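hi!! sorry for the late reply, been swamped w classes. u asked for the two structures so here they r. pasted raw, havent cleaned anything up. first the sequence of the first protein and right below it the tokens
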Amino acid sequence: MGVVIPLEESKNKQASVKPLVDLTKADMERVNQLILSKAGSDVQMIPEVAEHLISSGGKRLRPMLTIASAALFGYQGDNHVKLATSVEFMHTATLLHDDVVDESDLRRGRSTARMIWGNQASVLVGDFLLGQAFRMMVDVGSLEALDVLSGAACVIAEGEVLQLSVAKNMETTEDDYLSVIRAKTAALFAAAAEVGPIIANANKSGRNALKSYGTNLGLAFQLVDDALDYGGKAADLGKNVGDDFREGKITLPIILSYRRGTEDERAFWRDAIENGNSNDANLEKAMGLITKYGALSDTIARAVHYGTIARDALAPLPDTPWKSALLEVIDFCIERVN
């Protein structure tokens, strides 16, 4: 069951990441080579597990943000490639850990590493990739960049624990939910965007602009992802529609529907999420309630709001192809619901 979620302002031209992909292509090829090199190990299982996830078709948006944000401030050198690779390794490690915590079977349409090699291997390979990420950060020699990325790693871990604490709890508020996604998703987007101007020796306002851009892009990105779980297609999601529901994840569409529902409807949500009665029939009913209370369109409205903040963050910077590409990424992230 899919739901088409119209945006209030439709554009004639579909937004795309292609401008960003084209601009970062040469440097991203170097990132990909470094990924393969640094994911290597004499312990055979490590490159096998890493390669399984690294080669699974992700857009590598976060490392592209690092490349683009450095270029935006005229950076000349090689350290942006090392930092972009560090960012991708941090992201890959969190995915490996996430799939264990969430007991996920699919990731981008393929069996998760934990389904093939088990939970222990997934966690430990994730730890290896984090270690390699920090080694590359040290190679760069920027204490400020190391501070930003290591801080993000701590915040992401806090977000994971916070998500566990609110899991399957229907009294979770929208503020609780935003705290989770700010930590789990937005923190790495923010760090990926901020380290570029750091190594380019940009001033504080430039750093703050990219940090704000990354934070709000990350929030918009995750809000759309959570809406897509109830209004997307399995082929686009890389997982089954309704997986968040089946796993008892409390996301904004559920929070809004629960708050706006009748007492009987709230009882349904408590039974489905807290008691784990998340069968297909209940998923169908859940999607009906989400539609009834406009929870998807309101979730997307929140995403548009954060996208606007991200756009405003870049407004004072000079107009360049790099800036235009970063702005189009905002629209692309939000328009995925169409």
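now the second protein. again sequence first, tokens right under
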Amino acid sequence: MKSISRHIPQRTCVACRQVKPKREMTRLVRVSGGAIEVDTSGRKPGRGAYLCRNIECWRAGLMSSRLDYTLRTTITSENREWLMNHSKEFVGE
């Protein structure tokens, strides 16, 4: 008997470049107006980028220009600070 394997979507972390299942990543999305939000549902419209649920990846992604480049925007310092302060909610232990 053949087992049918289900396709698992893969995404690449902007910071560490590791490929992982989409469910193990956190999606950041550029919304209209240029602000960056965390997309907990994974379905918000807008340009998205993924980060591992690892605090080091969040720091690297938010403090370098990689996220700006991927999302094709310039993240404001206030938006960066808000995301970094709230990253604990989205980082897996």
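hope this helps!! also noticed smth abt the second:
The first strand starts at residue 10 and ends at 12.
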